[in-house]
């Protein structure tokens, strides 16, 4: 990413003259940039964890196929959702977001398994 | 969660007699349980990180409202998607999953902001 590209957002929102006239705008821009840096760090960590998670689910898929177990396990899914909702509440996150996260990863796993099955 | 509930999956899949007759099934069950433990740990970490992420986006929303900035920033979103796709490739994760993750968090943020706006 070029420096020019990185400063696009700042340039498109405020300019130097406006910042001099409105120091509170400059304060907001700085705060938003700091928070966006933290969001990027969180996203980096989550993408790394998702990479590990999908390695684990791929290995579970292989073990299940080898042992002749069914791919889906609804009881396990319900227990996972309940656990994640409780964790979310404790961490100050809307439990619906934790459940949406679970729906997202499970549906991605299924899509992935179907794609792999279709290729083999 | 009760102990009874935790062992439901094992009971529903194989029983002790079957395990004695088929040691390879027991091996698969043990491997799957170990991997599921790792998945649960990853999910715990991700839910904690999502809790922090939504605190950050809520604060950005407040700063933007105060400074009169537009809530959406399409350029920033495109840069984030490109960055996450690259990170995913480096980590051995399907880049489409990283993009789906981004779509998921952004749409949850928007839903949340709309809900907050509707309440105020």
From TrEMBL, chains A, B:
<dbReference type="GO" id="GO:0004106">
    <property type="term" value="F:chorismate mutase activity"/>
</dbReference>
<dbReference type="InterPro" id="IPR010951">
    <property type="entry name" value="CM_bact"/>
</dbReference>
<feature type="region of interest" description="Disordered">
    <location>
        <begin position="1"/>
        <end position="25"/>
    </location>
</feature>
<dbReference type="InterPro" id="IPR051331">
    <property type="entry name" value="Chorismate_mutase-related"/>
</dbReference>
<protein>
    <submittedName>
        <fullName>Chorismate mutase</fullName>
    </submittedName>
</protein>
<dbReference type="InterPro" id="IPR002701">
    <property type="entry name" value="CM_II_prokaryot"/>
</dbReference>
<dbReference type="InterPro" id="IPR036979">
    <property type="entry name" value="CM_dom_sf"/>
</dbReference>
<dbReference type="InterPro" id="IPR036263">
    <property type="entry name" value="Chorismate_II_sf"/>
</dbReference>
<feature type="compositionally biased region" description="Polar residues">
    <location>
        <begin position="1"/>
        <end position="14"/>
    </location>
</feature>
<dbReference type="Pfam" id="PF01817">
    <property type="entry name" value="CM_2"/>
</dbReference>
<dbReference type="GO" id="GO:0046417">
    <property type="term" value="P:chorismate metabolic process"/>
</dbReference>
<keyword id="KW-0413">Isomerase</keyword>
<feature type="domain" description="Chorismate mutase">
    <location>
        <begin position="26"/>
        <end position="117"/>
    </location>
</feature>
<dbReference type="GO" id="GO:0009697">
    <property type="term" value="P:salicylic acid biosynthetic process"/>
</dbReference>
